[in-house]
Amino acid sequence: MNLTEDISLSTDTIHLLSKEQAWHYRVAPKHKNASTFTLYCEAGIDQYAMAAELEVLLGTTIILEPIPVEQVARLLSKHYIKGDAAQSTTQLDFQKEDNGFLLSLIVEAKNLKSSDIHIESYENKCRVRIRIDGMMVERYILKQKDYPALINRIKILSNLDISEKRLPQDGRINFKQQDHQFDIRVSILPTLHGEKVVLRLLNNDATNIDLNSLGFSEFDLNNYLQGVRRPNGILLISGPTGSGKTTTLYATLKLLNKETRNILTVEDPVEYTLEGINQVQLKESIGLGFAEALRTFLRQDPDVIMVGEIRDTETANMAIRAALTGHLVLSTIHTNSAWGTVSRLSDMGIPPFLVANTLNTTVAQRLIRLLCPHCKHEQEFDTNLYPKQFKPYAEVENHYTPKGCEQCYYTGYKGRKAVYEVIPVDQELAMQIKSGNMYINELLKERGIKTLAENAFRLFGEGQTSLEEIYPLLFNY
């Protein structure tokens, strides 16, 4: 078999071998039926002796299929992750009498730096997927008869109604086990074949978040800090769900968190906890929404207010009012670009003159996966790979592509970095807002402001990421 030929293992066969068995014998499961178990093994070994030993261990007839040593290493590193980063699937067997499977699953996902766990039911199978570096990875196949019990456990731990299976439910789990302590946001959605559960793992520790390490260029960071240091006004960060907006906000709050400042936040959910900041958890079921919390905040003598998201007209009006009365307001909003926040606020019914008088900085951000430094592959670049009509910001002769190794579990990527577009709103730009002019590209170029596409292209040109990763942003140049 050619090394370049990719072998994929089925999730429902992976659990037939433990991590220890797979690594000790350096084998990976290919197929199992009632009478035989076919395993991939390294070429050049004594297949007869190993098959005899494995037959005793596994209690079935073993058929070994030799493949290159490098291919076995790839399969083991990808599906049987070593160390404490992941438990083997046999250690995560479903036990009806306890929460062992669920608790081990959560610990595994946290150690793998996963942001979400998806538990899903279909007509013929149930599966568990986790999101790592923004990408979904299938980890386990569950028996359908065990699925309702698992959902009920999650509901009990998050104080939800186990008898309600027709309506969506939202809850929260405060997870404490050994050295692990963090919150989990629970979302349950009724689907055609059962309830789908998404567990969002929230990072409670904000002490290690630093603005300097998030991905700002020096120029953008200086522009951003100018807005942060202003005593009043609104600073808005836009981007899709999961683009790191909350992390940027908390890095900002950490910078502003002084004994001399009163900082209040209202969030849904509270993703980080930070000593010295007064944090409010949204509870819309009892009437505590963003607008209601902001109304009370103004009577709490605040210096800085952070609103988790501006999602309706009432919240936008309260944020504007807070900024007009001398407070610095930080928040997020859903738009495609930094300047798009202006039209979004106008769509919410905020008069342009109020936006111009209060908006001091607008930011857009995305998360870009970084190539694994241990295995990224350099090759000559073909300009035909760019999107049609795209004009590159600089000439690229060679570029790097993902390859995959043990360090990155053969994904080709390791870690993520944010890319930003930061627009400080000065007097001239405020006049453009008042006049309703949305076409300000030339003004931004005069100020040296880089777009999301330009900053993402810089990472590509420096060899930190691949063209595939920044490709969606190049359509917004």
Provide structural commentary.
This protein is α/β, with parallel strands linked by helices. The chain contains 16 helices and 18 strands. The chain has helices spanning 11-14, 19-25, 47-58, 69-79, 100-111, 147-157, 218-228, 245-256, 290-297, 313-324, 340-347, 352-358, 427-435, 441-446, 452-461, 467-470, and strands at 27-32, 36-42, 61-67, 114-121, 126-132, 135-142, 169-177, 180-191, 194-202, 233-238, 263-267, 278-281, 304-307, 328-333, 359-371, 377-380, 398-401, 413-424. The strands form four sheets. A seven-stranded mixed beta sheet has the order 12-11-13-14-10-15-18, with helices on both faces. Strands 6-5-4-9-8-7 form a six-stranded antiparallel beta sheet. The protein has a three-stranded mixed beta sheet with strand order 1-2-3. Helix 9 (290-297) runs parallel beside helix 10 (313-324) and helix 12 packs antiparallel against helix 13 (427-435). The longest helix has 12 residues, at 47-58. The model is unreliable at 84-97 (pLDDT under 50).
Characterize this entry briefly.
This protein has 477 residues and is of the alpha/beta class.
Terminal-residue CA separation: 43 Å
Rounded mean pLDDT is 87
Walk across the major sheet and give the strand order.
Answer: 12-11-13-14-10-15-18
What is the count of DSSP helices, taking H or I runs of 4+ residues?
A: 16
Radius of gyration: 26 Å
Question: How much helix, percentage-wise, in residues?
Answer: 25-40%
Largest sheet: 7 strands, mixed
Taken as a percent bin, the fraction of beta residues is 25-35%
